[in-house]
Amino acid sequence: MKSLYKLIAVFLLLILVGCTKEIEIDFAHEPQVFISGVLLNQTGNVNVHIQRTVPVDVETIDPVNDATVSLYQKDQNGVVSLLTNNFTATNGTYTSLETLSPVLNNMYWVEVELADGTNYRSAEERLKPPVELKEVTRKNGLTRVVFKDPADDINFYLVHFSYSNNGQFISDEYLVANDKLFDGNDQAFVEDDDDTGNYVTVTVYNINFQTYQFHLNALLQREDQIDEGDDDDDDSGDPGRLFSSPPAHLIGNIINVETNKAALGYFGISSVSSIEGSL
C-alpha cells in the first residue's frame, strides 16, 4: 500500500510540474519627481536637481528642465524674503544666476513649481554654525576626526573621508553621525575603518535631522547595492551612482504642497568644515 501512495504522489508531482509555466509580471511604473540640493555656509551659486524616477531596468535619467525654482529665507526676527527665483536649467540641474551669501542661524527652503502646476516645498531648515575641527589621526587601523561638538543643541553630521597616496586619490567614504553620545564634548570624534593612503581630507557637514535621516537611508541603500553588485566593479563605491536613477523610498524633507504628502528627495541646509593631514 505504501508503494501505491508513493506512486500516486509522484504522479501528482509530475502533473503539477507539467502544468507550470513562467509568468512575466508587468508592474506599471508611475514616474515621481525627485528633488535634491544643498545650501552651504559659503558664498556661491546654489544648485537644485530635479528629475523623474525611471523603471528599475532603465539606467538613464529623466531630467525636468521646465520647472520654476524659488529660494526663500526667514531671518531670526521671523521676516520672510525671497532670495532668488532666477535659475538656469541644464539636464535637470538648476543653478542660481546670482551668488548668494547665507546667514548663520537663518532658516532656508526651496519651492518648486512644475509646468503642470504641481508645487513642492522643502522643510525650513536652520543654517547651523560650522563645527571646529581639531585634528585627524589614524590609530589601530581607524581614521579619526576630532572636533568640538556645540553644546545645548542636537547636532547631526555627514562626514566625508577622502584618501590619497602621494597626491593620487585612492578612495573615499561617507558616514553619518549624531551627538547623542557626545553632546557638548570638546573631543568628540567620528571614525572610519579605512586604513588606505597616507593622506586624508575630512569634510564635516553640520546638518539638520531630516537631511541626516535622508543620508542615513541613502547610505544604507548604497551598501545594499554594493553588496548585491559585482565586487569587481570599480564604480561600485561612487555615491553619485545612487542618484543615477532615484530610489523610490528615499523620502526626505520635500512635500507636495497640494496634498501635504511627503515627496522624494531633500534640500539640505548645512555648514561645512574641512581638515586634512598626513597619516
From TrEMBL:
This is DUF4249 family protein. Residues 226-237 have a biased composition (Acidic residues). Residues 226-245 are annotated as: Disordered. It comes from Aquimarina hainanensis. InterPro entries: DUF4249 (IPR025345). It comes from the Bacteria.
